[in-house]
Design goal:
about 20% strand; DNA-binding; Helicase, Ruva Protein, domain 3; about 270 residues; alpha+beta; 2 domains; N-terminal domain of MutM-like DNA repair proteins
Length: about 270
DNA sequence: ATAAACGCCTGGCGGC
DNA sequence: TGCCGCCAGGCGTTTA
């Protein structure tokens, strides 16, 4: 499930493939992945050139001649590049055909991904980007900010880190890794988090995500970057996916449970 | 007002 | 071997 590091990997990959290219036409084969009117989307995006690519939270932001194209990969969204002559795979739901005859194809088995076309000059002030919290490396992400956000609620810290309105870009895998590195139980209620623990969370959020970005993200079955290049961070995961294995610090058997409906891995000895 | 539950989706897996 | 039911899981929507 692409989180910030995987989205950045895809973004870099797209830069090398499509920057400066012009979209000749666009065909949508699954209406529900387009937010707004599909026919309008197809018509509007034609003849626009890809000028820049960035990310905000887990969103890919493609700056075009007139508009910004926002893409959320959700669970299994990815891009493939194919000559326009090659028949469409059943999971390829949107085909962007460039003027050089190459398609960029949005492939999404689970059909959870979303694409939105918005005016580019105000894209960060509009929904959904204006609802996102700070990026993992934003200097505004401080202990005071987190404690203020935590103050009135009583949900587990695990669920708080998944709340994109507070910190944008953390998903289920890095959430477990950040809490393990911080020695905090995912079940800990957020309002009981101390200033020292909040500082740990911030520090480890930066550490874990930076390292993962450096390594190209985590390759699991549902993530593959657009050129088929795989990330390497899966070899660095300390806790996520290691049910019944020994904790790398104390050797205690790693627990797997559900918190807020999400599969959660933690060490019951190291994480209090 | 907040929080839990549901719905969207399909491939893969365990059980029989 | 084949079929069935269940699960994963981000996030918007609905219900409690």
């Amino acid at each position: 499930m692409p989180e910030k590091p995987e989205v950045i990997t895809v973004s870099k990959s797209l830069e090398t493939r499509i920057l400066g290219k012009t979209i000749q036409s666009c065909q949508v084969y699954w209406d529900n992945c387009i937010v707004g009117d599909t026919k309008q989307f197809e018509k509007e995006i034609a003849d626009q050139t890809i000028e820049a690519i960035t990310t905000r939270g887990k969103w890919l932001v493609l700056f075009l001649s007139q508009d910004a194209l926002l893409i959320h990969l959700r669970m299994e969204g990815k891009f493939f590049f194919r000559s326009h002559e090659i028949p469409r795979n059943k999971h390829e739901h949107v085909l962007f055909t460039f003027t050089d005859g190459i398609d960029m194809r949005f492939h999404d088995v689970r059909k959870f991904g979303k694409l939105i076309l918005l005016p580019k000059n105000e894209v960060f002030q509009l929904s959904p980007l204006n609802e996102l919290g700070y990026e993992y490396n934003d200097p505004n992400l401080t202990v005071a900010y987190l404690l203020d956000k935590f103050k009135h609620k009583s949900i587990p810290i695990k669920s708080v880190l998944l709340d994109q309105r507070i910190i944008a870009g953390i998903g289920n895998i890095y959430d477990d890794e950040i809490l393990f590195a911080s020695h905090i139980s995912p079940l800990q209620k957020e309002k009981k988090i101390t200033a020292e623990e909040a500082a740990n969370i911030i520090e480890n959020t930066k550490k874990v995500l930076s390292k993962a970005i450096e390594m190209g993200g985590t390759t699991i079955k549902s993530f593959e970057s657009s050129e088929g290049v795989h990330g390497l961070f899966q070899n660095e995961l300390s806790i996520h996916g290691r049910k019944d294995q020994a904790c790398p610090i104390c050797g205690t058997k790693i627990m797997n449970t559900k918190i807020g409906g999400r599969g959660t891995y933690y060490c019951p000895h190291c994480q209090k």
